[in-house]
Amino acid sequence: MRESPQRRRLTTTTLLISAGMVLGVGALVFGTAVAIGLTVPGVPAHLDTLIIAALLVQSVGTLVALAFVLRRRGHRISTIGFSRPSLRLLHLLWQIPAAVLVVLGAQLLVFAITGSEPVSDSSTDSVAGNAGPVAAIVMFLAVAIITPFWEELFFRGVIYGYVRNRLGAAGAVTLSAVVFALCHGVPILLPYMLALGLCLALLRAFHGNLWGPLGLHLAINSTASLVLLQVVFA
């Protein structure tokens, strides 16, 4: 399926403003959370709730800020990638399981070669467990639902679209996947994130819109985040 051309070419300025907005919202929200935790009496006793609130504000704020910037720069969200979905999305019924096997296989291969143990997520589990049921559900919504929307809009929308207009689909798939992996940090998980980034970008190219990669992203984040809810409700 050929992707419909954007009505207005993504410029370097738009890319830089979008990236700055993503970094700026994150720095502002988490910087404010740290300041509140250090200066407001009684807050340290509810640190887990503060962290979850910051995650929610950051995810919602980033999504709203990106949409605002793109709109002001003359880009409709539909032309960035959230166009009307089609029955082609039914391919996700086999693409999502296949992608999950690929990303898990990539990480297991790294563990086998390096002898490393899977990274524990106990700190995140602890935050969810200590914050209580309502806060855990809020955390699930922020991490599993809202975050995939803004990440797809930025990585497979802005970055992928910018590179595709200049280097073609192959360059867009490769570079957007590399940037996605590097932005998610943990070195031992880099192969996992790179494999996931490639799968997401390939779905972007296959479906011609962001609904395909969003479906995989939602599935991955939701499955991982269900562990958090199990910690609270088990």
Automatic annotation (TrEMBL):
UniProt entry tagged with the keyword Transmembrane: yes
Residue ranges of every copy of the CAAX prenyl protease 2/Lysostaphin resistance protein A-like domain listed in the record: 135-222
Protein name per its UniProtKB record: CAAX prenyl protease 2/Lysostaphin resistance protein A-like domain-containing protein
GO biological process terms held by the UniProt record: CAAX-box protein maturation
A GO MF label: endopeptidase activity
Signal peptide: none
Keyword Protease carried by entry: no
Any single Pfam family the record assigns to this protein: Rce1-like
UniProt entry keywords in alphabetical sequence: Membrane, Transmembrane, Transmembrane helix
Transmembrane residue ranges: 12-38, 50-70, 91-114, 134-155, 167-190, 210-233
